[in-house]
Amino acid sequence: MSLLEVRELTMKFGELVANDRVSFSVEEGSIAGLIGPNGAGKTTLFNCISGLYRPTGGRILFGGADITRLAPYRIARMGAVRTFQVVRPLKEMTVFDNVLVGAFLKCPDSGEAFERASECIRICNLESVRERPAGDLPIGGKKRLELARALAARPRLLMLDEVMAGLTSTEMKAAMDVILRLRESGITLMIVEHVMEGIMPIADKIVVLEGGVKIAEDIPLRIAGDERVIEAYLGAKYGRRFRNGKEGAPVG
């Protein structure tokens, strides 16, 4: 069953076409990767799905409901929650209070919100820094904080925008492990990512954009061998390594 359906979505900024009749679906309980070169329209697509942009054309269905023109807060309350490529925590507030902000979206009771925030702090391995000002965290910690804050809102669909960018190999493996555990808990994930070693091993499906157009949608193994994707983005060397099992071994 598809939780998210994007149908012929188009987003124009004047004469610039950022997304051009893009269609795909994300099945409930799956991990979908969204990849492509810089300027391909990935974040613009996320902005449309999350309500920050109103598409020029097409429709977006979430859980069967049309969310194409809904406000971001309404979409988030329905369960489609996202992170951002540029991490912007509430710097003067503690890590815990940042996560608590996310929890209050679905938990009007303060006791319930505190319990949810504490749970997400634990899931994202932030317990040792929960009372530190969020602005003091290194990039890896801020990425985990962004994930915890989104997770606190109890998403059905969690959209992650380059959550592994700038992480060390150890931090990336830990992030992959968290993502896999979230899928096991029933959360559907859609991930924009440039770090192929982070997304290819864990995704059930990969959607590829180039110049605002979808050029491929398939399982990772076939994507790694797709000549259009190799030419536009992956490169022949990576494609061979992934298909031969020498890169992107599963984690967890």
Main attributes of the structure:
alpha/beta, Rossmann fold, six-stranded mixed β-sheet, globular, 252 residues, single chain
CATH homologous superfamily label of the largest domain: P-loop containing nucleotide triphosphate hydrolases
- Structural class of the secondary structure composition? alpha/beta
- Oligomer description: single chain
Helix percentage range: 25-40%
H/E element sequence: EEEHEEHEHHHEHEHEEHHH
Average pLDDT over all residues: 91
Task: Describe this structure as you would to a colleague.
- The chain is of the alpha/beta class and 252 residues long.
- It is globular.
- Strand 7 (157-161), helix 6 (169-184) and strand 8 form a beta-alpha-beta unit.
- The strands form two sheets. It has a six-stranded mixed β-sheet with strand order 6-7-8-3-9-10, with helices on both faces. The protein has a four-stranded antiparallel β-sheet with strand order 2-1-4-5, with helices on one face.
- It has two domains: 1-79 and 156-252, P-loop containing nucleotide triphosphate hydrolases (Rossmann fold, 3-Layer(aba) Sandwich); 89-154, no CATH class.
- 37% of the residues lie in helices and 25% in strands.
- The mean pLDDT is 91.
